[in-house]
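Researcher: Here's a chain I'd like modeled. Treat it as a single chain, no partners, no ligands.
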Amino acid sequence: MVKENALKAGEAQQVEQAPQTQERSKRRRRPVRGKTLQVRKMPKEYRRLLGLLYPEPEFEYVRAEIRAECKDMPRPCPFVSCRYHLYMDVNEEKRNGAIKINFPDLDVHEMEHTCVLDLAEGGPRTLDEVGEYMNLTRERVRQIEEECLNKLGGREAAVKFLEIGLSANAK
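Model: Modeled as a single isolated chain. Structure tokens:
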């Protein structure tokens, strides 16, 4: 009898915790992780087939060189190879070369935001928001922020740098 009551109490506790667990899993729900492709490790035949499937365009297209040119272009941005595009990152510095597709489960046209510069014009963002836009965890965004601040010489130097930039824009 005591054992049955304990089991029933345990079941009731599980039932009470279920909505909290579901709510927590919704908050932590992370999209599909980015996929990194090592270009040099791809078989030559695969690269040849990719070249056949996605040939260089025959027409001359105009790609924006500066922000002022791309600011009024249609969104989502069609230039996936742009360094400010959120769909993929190309790392040429690594020995083997790597392409990271940040949102492998989405097509470019399904993305809500495609340009980092558009997001930057929107003002400050929380770590969660930045992580959501870039398909990174909040902790990884914090680490990247810390690395950038260290490169600038610390948080105080970064604040001075921003103040100088803001005062120059105000003039």
